[in-house]
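Observation: inputs received (chain + FE2/S2 (inorganic) cluster).
Thought: call the complex predictor directly.
Action: predict_structure
Action Input:
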Amino acid sequence: MLIYFTLNGDLVEWEVQPSETLLSVLRRQGMFGVKYGGCTKGECGACTVLIDKKPVNSCTTLAAQVTGHQIETIEAMGQHPDQGWKKTSGLHPIQQALVESRAIQCGYCTPAFALAARALIDRNPNPSESEVREAISGVLCRCTGYIKPVQAILRAAAVMRGESVPPILGTPESEAPVWPIGTLPEVNSPLGGDTWPETTSQTQVMPKIWTSQAAREKPRTKIGRPEIKVDAIKLVQGKPAFSADIEKRGMLVAKVLHSPLAHAMIKSIDLTAARELPGVAAVLCYQDVPRVIYSTAGQSDPIPGPLDAFSLDRKVRFVGDRVAFVAAETDEIAEQALKLIKVEYEELPAIIDSRQSMQPDAVRIHDEPEYVNFADSNPAKNLAAEIRIDIGDVEKGFAEADRIYEEEYAVPKVQQAHIEPHVVVTYWDEDDRLVVRTSTQVPFHARRILAPVLGLPVKRIRVIKPRIGGGFGAKQEVLIEDVAAHLTIATGRPVIYETTREEEFTASRSRHPMRVRLKTGVKLDGTITANAMYALSDTGAYGCHALTVTGNTGHKAMALYVGDGPYRLSPNIRFYADVVYTNTPPAGAYRGYGVPQGFWPLERHIEHICRDLRLDSIDFRLKNTLRSGELHPFSTAWSEGREPVPEIVHTVGLEECVRQAKAAIGWDQKYPNTAWHQVEGKPHLRRGIGVATVMQGTAIPYLDMGGASIKMNDDGSFNLLIGATDLGTGSDTVLAQMAAEVLGVEVDDILVYSSDTDFTPFDKGAYASSTTYISGAAVVKASEMAAERIKARAAKLINRQAAGEEVVGDDILLEDNQARTLDGRFVSLKDIALNALHHDDQEQIMGIGSYYSPVSPPPFAAQFAEVTVDIETGKVVVDRLVMAVDSGIIVNPLTASGQIEGGMTQALGYAVCEEMVYDGKGRAREVDLNEYHIFRADEMPALETIFVQTYEPSHPFGVKAVAEIPMDGVAPAVGNAILDACGAEVLENPATPERVWRALKRVNQ
Ligand code: FES
Ligand code: FES
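Observation:
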């Protein structure tokens, strides 16, 4: 049918199918700023467009419905001001504010935020914070925690009203190392009244920063600056930056037929009718593709886990497992073809509860002869991994204790819920090499893992990683690339495979759920004498990341409490775990990588001990936690299946973190104050405050490796090529800052390209909080190599051109785009570049560097939470989260605080509402973002981030990791705050109203 409407001011007439959505039609016509969030029910808002100035989800709007209406997309909102000889009016003030306020992380939600904000400001030029939050509540963001987008919109509104707004750039360093108590505005509980102050002018987004003396002694010009993200301008315009934003002639659409049964053999499969359907190009089942066993975990070689997966198999092991692949001309034809595939299954007994997996009579989930063990995996016992770590003498420690505390806890399976689904495009290039354009965190691992699965040598595969719309670990998996690749091999044509939100819940990866038993020996003075954890970890149907995720549960969480006095010198710690197979969707990597599963029980347990012994819970923690100069206790015992190497922890800013966060939240005024715990006029409400202390790691020692190369251009700018993958974290920007610092140029003189296995150096990818530390050190090495050549040439030019003492390269400083001597002579980098490339003894000035680390310096943090509990219903509202983080030197305070705010928000879901549940047949209860609730802008508590800057000596700029640690402390701090509010001891996470209500019943019995 023919439809006509006004699109961004122009009248258009398009031919569409009656059933086509507006989203599909707009994207087909090149409006790639309209994003697909995998929804079928309009859950995420990524596809927002304005219809007659109102924000509408284009995925639930039929194209036919918009005839005669006005449609606006991000493409017409504003553009880069400088288009060569043509100047434009530039970005729209809303886009400008989103860029300036650093409100863009992965940028997948950004066009929708911009359009929703525009609709709001058009009808209400002076919105309050509550109104902004309400207006963008239909757009889900999994990265930011909404603080910066909200502040950006308030800022834009102020600018559009003609008001002046304060500059965002300022000195990030605070001269006052401790802030007075009560500097935050009081926020009433949503249960108690207003949720947000009626702010109309608060447009500041800088976090507080406390800096140690050691860190102050290393002043820098680009490190520590809140530079604008290098990809912000393109993302705010909705440019075609993501994997799916590509047009390829003849591109087919891929779909997957998933198993309806949790455990079954395929008795027969008939593809005839599907293959005969007009418009179907290929249908593949296990009989059509090579039977190659592999692991989907995107990890280094050798993969530290069992090989237990096939692209397609005769056996299915969970509801959602793959049965067949289809490639067709359109989505609709592919869907129809799936329905025509006839499968007869022989159903097998299924294991849904991990406690049944190791029973002697349990059905065996992996009985394939090709199975390859790693370490202590044992498919005959449904065991994907077994971990036994003993440090010191735990039994002796228990014998020396005055009290022994034992308890069992449970943590749930949760979903990464990145807003951009998994997406891949594959095609043959002109050299018959397979190009895989994919939203991956691990392009180099993907290439290596795909090669045998596809029957291609590594050298005939090229993996391109465009921008990524969030991943949080779920894209540290070779999950979908083989689907499209097999279909491209079968058809010779380009293929796109984008997962739906339902597939994300039923066939992607998730966080390992665990049952954790803790046993702790304590002396009456609060000294921990021994600490033991046993974890029963559920890896689901496949063992991807089974060993390493669960190893981290002990390695990072149990390392924090070493004890005091003689126990500090020789701690007694035990960590045992069994990682078992079940017939549920596989678990995998999720930001935090096993550590949130450890800290929730541990910090709840510590709180329980403190209260029972009537000891101050903060003093107790600091008495027993690891300190600077001490041995990381696990470094002598475990290293992800490799040989452990003892490691001293040099920087521990935990005490300062506690001091700062405690003051910011007003702990001393609230915790001991009975009146504060009551809510005036609301006897059914109680307030509570809780704390958790946590640590993480920074990269995997002796394993993670990053590479970088940098080359100088004619104008003195540089191309920085990195294999590191920025999945929205801002790593491209902080790596550019490091290069700019070494080379003495502005950040926008560094043109970052990441990543493409043909052009960029190897990098193990974005995981383990390693990019700033590992890839950053590689960038520094590459930049220093280039800087050396620049200085040598500068010395020659200066000696030739200007009178004065003869200089050598070592006498030269690089700053302000110049090479300078101490006596004031200089030559510009542009002149050096022209000289090197065109004039004199020509050379390409460039540098390469790679780095791996012998250590993994842990970041530390203190997390505080304030809650209000309804003791009649068990409903918990989290009112405030304050986190103080020691991540070493902060390269970019705004990208880093964005990481903390977004991480705390994800962790907040883990604390109170996110959970994946299966029925007795292994069918998922949560299959969309309606059932699985992630926090919206209008539901958020107040968030505050404080950085405690130590100087980590193992890195050239003193950095440690920041990305994962915000996942660790929120849930236990919230659990502890609930206990403080009403005495409810919730032992199973998340603290849903039902669990809190049941715990309250136990208190009142
Ligand atoms: S709401 Fe339309 S794609 Fe999510
Ligand atoms: S920045 Fe919002 S989803 Fe990533």
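Thought: report the result.
Final Answer: The longest strand covers residues 528-540. Residues 116 and 136 are 6 Å apart (CA to CA).
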